[in-house]
Amino acid sequence: MKDMQAQLEKLRTDAAECALIRDLATEPKKRDLFTRLAEHLTVLADEVDRAIAAAGREQKRND
C-alpha cells in the first residue's frame, strides 16, 4: 500500500511539473504536449487513487 501511495504522489508531482512547464512554454506545440502529459498523468493518478481506495475498502472487509 505504501508503494501505491508513493506512486500516487509521484504521478501528482509529475502532473504538476508538466503543468508548470506548459505554463512557461512559449511554443504552441510544447504547450499542447505538456498539457496532454499533465492531463494523462492526472488520469493515471486518479486511477491509482481509486485502486488505493478499493484496496482499503477490501482490507476493512477482511478485518
TrEMBL record:
Q: What superkingdom heads the lineage?
A: Bacteria
| Protein name, per record | Uncharacterized protein
Record organism: Bradyrhizobium japonicum
Q: What is the lineage of its organism?
A: Bacteria, Pseudomonadati, Pseudomonadota, Alphaproteobacteria, Hyphomicrobiales
